[in-house]
Amino acid sequence: MKVYGDTNSGNCLKVKWVCDHLALPYTWVAVDTLKGETRTAEFLKLNGAGQVPAIELADGRTLAQSNAIIRYLARGSRLIPQDAFAEAKMDEWLFWEQYSHEPYIAVCRFLMFYLGKPASDLDPDKVKRGYAALARMEHQLAITPFLVGDAVTLADISLLAYTRVAHEGGFHLDGYAAVRRWIGETEKFLGLQPAR
């Protein structure tokens, strides 16, 4: 299997973390999104949306979208709950992450960390929605150790990717004790060094 990704992207890191945790054999193919490498004719044959991550299986089939990829890779593992309702709750968080978390926290991070914009240039609505996402996570994580209960699932891995570096997008986690605890525990579970 080949994993096409950019290690600066949280969406790509999700795939790497799942592969590494489950000891899945893969070759990492570095794609520099800032240099437009996802827009080449060759890459667009792999993923017509022109986005990373994408995987290419040994038989030539391809799959894109980070949460679809990790869902596929982790099938049959403990990262997906066996209980049908708990599995659906995991999916609820995966869908929410792409619609209500990543567009705000990841976008603000991209603007500040990669484009060098000051926090004062951020769209106030994106900042407000980013903090709303953190508040929702804080509420859940004050009740349960992880997003879907007592064990790490794909929901935690997916949301860890950009939450652990939210500060790079101007988000302060001082008032989010449960989120900070969860970041540390999920990083430890995955064998990651703490985000700086």
Automatic annotation (TrEMBL):
Gene3D superfamilies: 1.20.1050.10, Glutaredoxin. Keywords: Transferase. InterPro entries: Glutathione-S-Trfase_C-like, Glutathione-S-Trfase_C_sf, Glutathione_S-Trfase, Glutathione_S-Trfase_N, GST_C, Thioredoxin-like_sf. The keyword Transferase applies. Residues 1-81 form the GST N-terminal domain. Residues 83-196 form the GST C-terminal domain. GO terms for molecular function: transferase activity. PANTHER family: GLUTATHIONE S-TRANSFERASE-RELATED, HYPOTHETICAL GLUTATHIONE S-TRANSFERASE LIKE PROTEIN. This is Glutathione S-transferase.
